Amino acid sequence: MEEQELRDQMNQYIETHGVKACWVAKQIGVNGIDTPLLSRWRAAKRDLWESTLADVKDFLQTH
């Protein structure tokens, strides 16, 4: 799965579930992802490490 596709899925998840990026960052909570980093990534202003992308993908698959 491409990074842009993950980004789109994350943005859709946050919109449809009515949660905030800080809640998602706490749920992922590994590899140093924090709310500002997650927010910049969602806005396509920052890339994530492959390991962090894998954690984001795992989160989206389980929620």
Q: Can you tell me about this structure?
A:
- This protein is mainly α and 63 residues long.
- The chain has one domain.
- The protein has 4 helices and no strands.
- It is globular and about 25 Å long.
- It starts with a helix and ends with a helix.
- It comes from Desulfitobacterium metallireducens DSM 15288.
- This is XRE family transcriptional regulator.
Helix content: 55-70%
Shape: globular
Can you count the helices? 4
The assembly state of the depicted protein chains is single chain
Report low-confidence residues grouped into runs of 5 or more: none
What's the total count of β strands?
A: 0
What are the salient characteristics of this protein?
63 residues; globular; XRE family transcriptional regulator
